[in-house]
Amino acid sequence: MPRIAYLGSAVPLDLERRMLGELSRDDVEVYEVDSDNAGRPARGSLSGADALVIEWGKADARTFDAAPQLRCVSMMAIGHDNIDDRAASRHGCWVTNVPDYCTYDVALHTLGLIVDLYKKITWFDRQVRDGVWDDMAGYDAPRPQGQTAGLVFFGSIAQALTPMLQAIGMNVMAYAPTKSTALLASHGVTKAQSLDELLQKSDVVSLHCPLVDATRDIICARTLRLMKPTAFFVNTSRGGCVVEEDLAQALTDGTIRAAAVDVKRDETNAKSPLVGLDRCIVTPHCAYHSSDSYTEMRTRALKNALQALDGEKPEDAVNELSLAG
């Protein structure tokens, strides 16, 4: 019987078992495995697994060496930087993600954070909870209408966010090296010729980039100093794109006005230099989440694993087995 292991599942596997029944796939077993201290599947937990589905955790070369029979590692996410794709390919193992399942949800969350920063909703709520009733408390903030939102990269989430920003009267600029001026113009977006230009001209800077070598630590002390002292910063992409200590310092010394982040570098706990700062909103990597997106994510992750077990190339494969060797 083929077996699919689940690592870091936030909920029991009831949906998966129900789905297997609906697909008449009673020949497939799903089960949960624990992680080690590094977030990998615990030693020996994959000895009988043919596929691995990951909600929270990682798989590196050690994982594939310990479980050479794996035919698929299926991520319940868009990003897959926590999977060693090359090691998987060498072992003849597909790596899959779930692209676009939460595009609308993340765009909406990003808009919510931007509106929150302008209207100080979280700020005022904290004040009232502390017994302070003062409608003038906190930093001064203008209307977003007529201000410029600068988007770092212009993939599907940034494209979904753009009309939302335009609907509240914002101008949109994007730093998107791989996108043409004509394409951006078709969305009503101005093309920034460099990241520095975008940072200098934007009233809100919002990250929408994957975590790769070129974007790691892209927001640091140097780039933060380029931003307006009245600017807001938002990150709903990847925590590794930001040097958190530098952002915390910029918020503390007034280099920028305020920030809101949904991601951080270490998401195994709630600790971060950003947590507890008055001028920073932190949400727990939940931008993707709605009941609809969560169901779609889990459903598509299982389908990718089943396709691999059936000897097919999964619909959402991100690697090529031809890289093996």
UniProtKB/TrEMBL annotation:
Protein name (database record): D-3-phosphoglycerate dehydrogenase
Residues in D-isomer specific 2-hydroxyacid dehydrogenase NAD-binding domain copies: 111-287
Keyword Transmembrane part of the UniProt annotation: no
Keyword vocabulary terms for this entry: NAD, Oxidoreductase
Family: Belongs to the D-isomer specific 2-hydroxyacid dehydrogenase family.
Molecular function as annotated in GO: NAD binding; oxidoreductase activity, acting on the CH-OH group of donors, NAD or NADP as acceptor; transcription corepressor activity
Highest rank taxon of the organism: Bacteria
Pfam families: 2-Hacid_dh, 2-Hacid_dh_C
InterPro entries in alphabetical order: CtBP (IPR043322), D-iso_2-hydroxyacid_DH_PdxB (IPR050418), D-isomer_2_OHA_DH_cat_dom (IPR006139), D-isomer_DH_NAD-bd (IPR006140), NAD(P)-bd_dom_sf (IPR036291)
Keyword Coiled coil carried by entry: no
Residue span(s) of domain D-isomer specific 2-hydroxyacid dehydrogenase catalytic: 44-319
Species name: Parafannyhessea umbonata
